[in-house]
């Protein structure tokens, strides 16, 4: 232990470290790792978006304050634990929630407040561009925000000199380089896998669409330059060092890897960048990302096409609703236990109740529920009403009740995944799952394996998160002497000794989920009726 401590102190002093900073929707996190990819120290800053003039946003003040606070807390942890002041770092990486819209003029002034991925204000633009490109353009993509601003004839448009994402902005601030990682770029504008750059024909199509507007800029001129994982995308400037480290101990000249989106860093953190692999992230919402080995045959509004940090195409299925209704019901059971004088820890309630689902009928005994706290794009619901439905003939018991709520948590996701596996015949060798649901062993994995008809693993590193993922990408840039591909680097070095528990899909569960999903689809009219008529 003492030797390890000495080694870490030397690594910090010599700058044999990598720093990852990720801007999530509720937290900014900084993680410092050593060359064995182990976390040395971390810091964080809690923040919230706010609705201003009809747009969800974060202020520039909050962005810079959070960046400095997360770095400072990490730096102080190093000083406290190792008695060393950080003066240099081997490499740095910046990551943030994907998509959104940040537009600047030639002086670097932000022209309108940062518009985040959460804004659902670009529906007309997204549909028009999808029809024009014959490529799905989701509402949250940067190009949809830009085109919607044009349709709205917003005054800032002629002044645009540069548009980017939040990660791209922070990177620009620290390095002066208008760069973006290909994964994050794929949430701005469609990517051509063969060139590892923006799709040239679609760029030209867009310029033709807007030619009559008379702007002095062309689209390619205002987009950041695309970089691939492993490439250096700039270095920390004197100004950047002062911004990042308010104490001004940090020296400039540190190389930075390409800034990435949270989807890409999630793939890295779960070792899911190889073709025919994927990951599922479970929380308030749920999304699956499958690395494709072939193009899809047509456009599907349910499926976003993005890329891994090394440019491989990825099909992303994102459902707005997942665990909120389960949490609400289990909160009710906790209230009941307290009411009868039996205070039970929340984790214990989750464990007991989730395990009951393993005793249920395969198809949930005819029960049905929708955990729609909000609308659901995959099933075409603009709003949501949490709903539990049964017939007099249903087998209404606790086991079926719990299995129903687990199945429905992945119902919309399964509809999207069925497009990939049944209509497009996409093969999936393995899925890595992460999220609080998997703290209870086996149950969540069995349900997800049935929904996706693929083996599902949970790794010990899955909780490390995107800040660790972007630190890994920063390390990959500096410590890849053998010039391994990103997939091989992760397999051979980062995850070589990481253990995971893999569960294969059970035929009993698969048949049960298929029966349930047919009931789920037919019952969507009930959910729509609740939206139409249950108004408080």
TrEMBL record:
Gene3D superfamilies: 3.30.420.40. Keywords: Kinase, Transferase. Pfam families: FGGY_C (PF02782), FGGY_N (PF00370). Residues 19-243 form the Carbohydrate kinase FGGY N-terminal domain. GO terms for biological process: carbohydrate metabolic process. Residues 279-477 form the Carbohydrate kinase FGGY C-terminal domain. It comes from the Bacteria. GO terms for molecular function: kinase activity. Belongs to the FGGY kinase family. This is ATPase. The lineage of its organism: Bacteria, Bacillati, Bacillota, Bacilli, Bacillales.
């Amino acid at each position: 232990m003492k030797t390890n401590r000495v080694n870490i102190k030397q690594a910090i002093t010599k700058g044999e470290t990598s720093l990852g900073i990720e801007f999530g929707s509720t937290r900014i996190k900084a993680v410092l790792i050593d060359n064995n990819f182990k976390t040395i120290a971390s810091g964080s800053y809690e923040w919230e978006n706010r609705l201003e003039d009809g747009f969800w946003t974060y202020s520039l003040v909050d962005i810079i304050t959070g960046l400095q606070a997360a770095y400072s807390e990490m730096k102080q942890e190093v000083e406290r634990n190792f008695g060393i002041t950080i003066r240099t770092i081997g490499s740095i990486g910046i990551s943030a929630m994907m998509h959104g819209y940040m537009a600047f003029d030639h002086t670097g002034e932000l022209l309108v407040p940062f518009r985040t991925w959460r804004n659902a204000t670009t529906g007309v633009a997204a549909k028009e561009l999808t029809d024009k490109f014959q490529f799905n353009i989701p509402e949250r993509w940067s190009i949809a925000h830009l085109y919607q601003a044009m349709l709205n004839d917003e005054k800032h448009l002629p002044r645009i000199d540069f548009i980017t994402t939040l990660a791209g902005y922070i990177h620009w601030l620290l390095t002066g380089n208008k760069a973006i990682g290909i994964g994050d770029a794929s949430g701005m504008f469609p990517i051509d896998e063969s060139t590892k750059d923006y799709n040239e024909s679609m760029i030209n199509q867009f310029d033709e669409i807007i030619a009559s507007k008379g702007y002095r800029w062309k689209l390619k001129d205002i987009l950041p330059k695309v970089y691939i994982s492993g490439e250096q995308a700039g270095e920390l400037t004197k100004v950047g060092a002062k911004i990042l480290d308010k104490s001004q101990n940090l020296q400039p000249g540190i190389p930075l890897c390409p800034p990435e989106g949270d989807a890409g860093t999630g793939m890295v953190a779960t070792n899911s960048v190889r073709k025919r692999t994927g990951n599922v992230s479970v929380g308030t919402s749920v999304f699956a990302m499958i690395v494709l080995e072939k193009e899809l045959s047509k456009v599907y509004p349910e499926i976003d096409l993005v890329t891994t940090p090394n440019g491989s195409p990825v099909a992303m299925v994102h459902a707005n609703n997942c665990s909120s209704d389960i949490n609400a019901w289990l909160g009710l059971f906790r209230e009941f236990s307290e009411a009868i004088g039996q205070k039970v820890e929340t984790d214990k309630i989750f464990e007991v109740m989730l395990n009951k689902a393993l005793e249920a009928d395969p198809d949930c005994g005819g029960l049905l529920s929708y955990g729609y706290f909000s609308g659901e794009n995959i099933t075409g619901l603009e709003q949501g009403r949490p709903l539990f439905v049964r017939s007099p003939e249903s087998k209404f018991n606790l086991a079926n009740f719990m299995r129903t709520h687990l199945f429905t948590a992945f119902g919309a996701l399964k509809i999207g995944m069925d497009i990939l596996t049944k209509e497009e015949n996409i093969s999936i060798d393995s899925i890595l799952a992460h999220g609080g649901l998997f703290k209870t062993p086996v149950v969540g994995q069995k349900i997800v394996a049935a929904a996706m008809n693929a083996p599902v693993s949970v790794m010990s590193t899955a909780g490390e998160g995107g800040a660790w993922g972007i630190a890994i990408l920063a390390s990959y840039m500096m410590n890849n002497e053998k010039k391994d591909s990103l997939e091989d680097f992760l397999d051979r070095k980062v995850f070589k000794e990481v253990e995971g528990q893999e569960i294969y899909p059970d035929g009993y569960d698969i048949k049960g989920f298929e029966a349930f999903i047919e009931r789920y689809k037919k019952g969507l009219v009930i959910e729509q009726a609740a939206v139409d008529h249950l108004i408080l």
